[in-house]
Amino acid sequence: MGRESYGSSSYGAVRPPAWLGGLVGETFFVGCSVHESRKKNEKNIFCLECCRSICPHCASTTSHRHHPLLQVRRYVYNDVVRLDDLEKLIDCSYVQPYTINSAKVVFLKQRPQSRPFKGSGNICLTCDRILQEPFHFCSLSCKVDRVMMQGQDLSSILHRFSQSDFAFSRFDGLEDDGRITPNSILEDPLQYNNTGSGGTTGSSEDLAVEEINGRNKNKKKEKHGKSSSNGGGGFLPQIVMSLSNRRKGTPPQRSPLS
């Protein structure tokens, strides 16, 4: 098939190409209905030719083996793609990447937020998520939505790519019969302390800030509860205070002799 162009102006100003709409709209990491009886049948591959998610068993068949394939990974229940792979398809400038397992990744879709951002700071132009400077978008879909809302031509950010860059042979650990699934589950950032990239990109720990803050709050509440129980009323605390007063020289209260 040689080199393919998915950035043709024939798509118009606001209509995304089929592969782009499929990539941000497809559901990944669900069981494949075609290979439901086989192990490791999660859909973690996107076929750029058929514009849909497939499993490793599908990828190894003649229907998809010679199609350009993009591997999708999973991080904290969200779909991500390696930045090196995605930049071959579309301009990812100003989309904040994260360094996870020594690889830079980009989120495909918006992530739910527990509360809306209030205050000043650098935020996503589409969903108001807090970002680091100088980034403007938290995910690929946020950038695409912004371009479409402004009525700009999507062809300005789409790239030509070589099919060899997304060949089936590039998948590590994927055997001919599709029995081995690519390593697509990224590690939990809370298990690592030195994963961050610093500077211009977010780190894996940035993605768990809310969870870490929540744990710290719970610890403070537990600590406060323990201190309250030790210093408050009750039978045991009163005995401790009485013993303390005796050590300080306070004469004990004795009942008169009968």
Question: In words, what does this structure look like?
Answer:
This protein is α+β, with helices and mostly antiparallel strands and 258 residues long. The chain folds into 2 domains: 3-214, no CATH class; 215-241, no CATH class. It is 24% helix and 13% strand. The chain has helices at residues 18-25, 56-59, 83-86, 140-149, 209-231, 235-247, and strands at 3-5, 45-47, 52-54, 69-71, 73-75, 78-82, 98-100, 103-107, 160-162, 202-203. The strands form 3 sheets. The chain has a 5-stranded mixed β-sheet. The longest helix has 23 residues, at 209-231. The relative contact order is 0.14.
What is the 3D shape?
globular
In total, the number of strands is 10
Helical stretch count? 6
Unreliably modeled segments: 1-13, 173-182, 187-200, 208-215, 231-237
Number of domains: 2
Q: Helicity, in percent?
A: 10-25%
In which order are the strands of the major sheet placed? 5-6-8-7-10
> Structural class of the secondary elements?
alpha+beta
Our Rg estimate from Cα atoms comes to 28 Å
Strand content: 5-15%
Biggest β-sheet, characterized? 5 strands, mixed
Summarize the helix and strand pattern as letters.
EHEEHEEEHEEHEEHH
Separation, N- and C-terminal Cα atoms: 111 Å
Key structural traits:
3-stranded antiparallel β-sheet, alpha+beta, 2 domains, globular, 258 residues, 5-stranded mixed β-sheet, 6 helices
What's the SSE blueprint?
Layout: E1 3-5, H1 18-25, E2 45-47, E3 52-54, H2 56-59, E4 69-71, E5 73-75, E6 78-82, H3 83-86, E7 98-100, E8 103-107, H4 140-149, E9 160-162, E10 202-203, H5 209-231, H6 235-247
Parallel strand pairs: 7-10
Antiparallel strand pairs: 1-9, 2-3, 2-4, 5-6, 6-8, 7-8
